[in-house]
Amino acid sequence: MALKSTIYKADLQIADMDRHYYADHALTIALHPSETDERMMVRLAAFALFASERLEFCKGLSDVDEPDLWETDLTGAIVQWIDVGQPDDRRILKAAGRAEQVRVISYGGRASEIWWKPVESRVARVRNLTVLNLREGCAAALAGLAQRTMRLQCTIQDGQMWLGDAASEPVLVEWERWREPVARSS
Predict the structure, then answer these.
(1) Minimal CA–CA distance to 152: which of 170, 132, 179?
(2) Helices and strands in the chain, H and E counts
(3) Best exposed site among 84, 127, 140, 143 by fewest CB in 10 Å?
(4) Is 123 in contact with 129 (CB distance < 8 Å)?
(5) Is the pTM of this model over 0.90?
(6) Residue 154 domain-assigned?
């Protein structure tokens, strides 16, 4: 018998002063049986960082043809493809051909650096790729916020993100920008 996902609910208030995006989101997040609280909360932080009215959680680990999050336009075209973790270069290349923007949020300290070294050269030609690496310890701090029902506030200003609830200190979510999209020359 297959294990079922555990369902988490999050009321997320976002005040993104960098993008002038202010919204409340009622989210349902499925924690895959093989997924950790760390990974789930990094997915939630990725949602907050790139939030839009049409951004949604996907099947992710349960379906190799879907990212962790995506945003589609009204025609069904993929605007944002967001993967969390360390996807292989084939997955990134496939995503780059399907989406306007591809974003990868890696975490895991030294393991992320080891993953990125060979992948970086293989995706060098991808023009629509952003790769962010969470600072070491950040994912573990985010996991400390995980509860089956969450009420979280997220503030983003001057390239810094704070995520927290009323019961604990907010977590500073910091990242290094390993890759930015390449501007098209005219």
Answers:
(1) 170
(2) 4, 11
(3) 127
(4) yes
(5) yes
(6) no
